[in-house]
Write a structure and sequence with these properties.
CATH superfamily: Gcn5-related N-acetyltransferase (GNAT)
Radius of gyration: 15 Å
CATH architecture: 3-Layer(aba) Sandwich
Oligomer: single chain
Strand content: 25-35%
Low-confidence stretches: none
Largest sheet: 7 strands, mixed
Number of domains: 1
Number of strands: 7
Length: about 170
């Protein structure tokens, strides 16, 4: 079952994010890694910034979460995580397709450049990498991240985003 997460899901979202984020340990730059990967305060800040989490629930337990953030002219997919023991079961794809159905806006997704599995997942679902120049512009415009972090991620965009770009 897919459902919008509620305030009562906060601790479960926190647990899922930090469990699944262990895949990034040793992959992202050491100065960008910390434990927990996302603190409770950071999660609270993300929720306050307008990220709405959706969850995949089965047998009364959330197995994966994915955030959706409306940014006026685009929508962002944020914090897509599936519990370690539930990976490779299609949960991420189900969540992604559901969130895509919530908007007609172009969708942007940021992930770590060295997280090849994440990039392949989004590419398999129809997203393409934007240029390095466009990445920097989009990150500064739509994400609240440090200048250091702008160097290490990539941004993928939906076909709708590419179709709306002027030649």
């Amino acid at each position: 079952m897919l459902r919008a997460c509620q305030a009562s899901d906060f601790e479960t979202i926190y647990t899922i994010v930090n469990d699944a984020a262990m895949a990034y340990r040793g992959v992202i730059p050491p100065d960008c890694w910390h434990e927990p990967y996302m603190t409770r305060a950071e999660l609270e800040q993300e929720l306050a910034s307008g990220i709405v989490f959706w969850g995949f629930e089965e047998a009364g337990e959330l197995a994966g979460v994915m955030g959706f953030q409306d940014k006026r002219e685009v929508a962002l997919i944020r914090h897509a995580y599936v519990r370690t023991q539930r990976r490779k079961q299609g949960i991420g794809t189900i969540l992604l397709h559901h969130l895509e159905g919530l908007t007609t806006k172009p969708i942007l997704i940021g992930t770590w450049a060295d997280a090849g599995w994440a990039i392949r997942f989004y590419e398999k679902n129809g997203y393409r990498l934007v240029s390095a120049e466009e990445k920097a512009r989009l990150l500064k415009k739509h994400w609240m991240i440090s200048n250091r972090q702008i160097k290490t991620p990539v941004v993928l965009a939906s076909e709708t985003w590419f179709a709306n770009q002027k030649p």
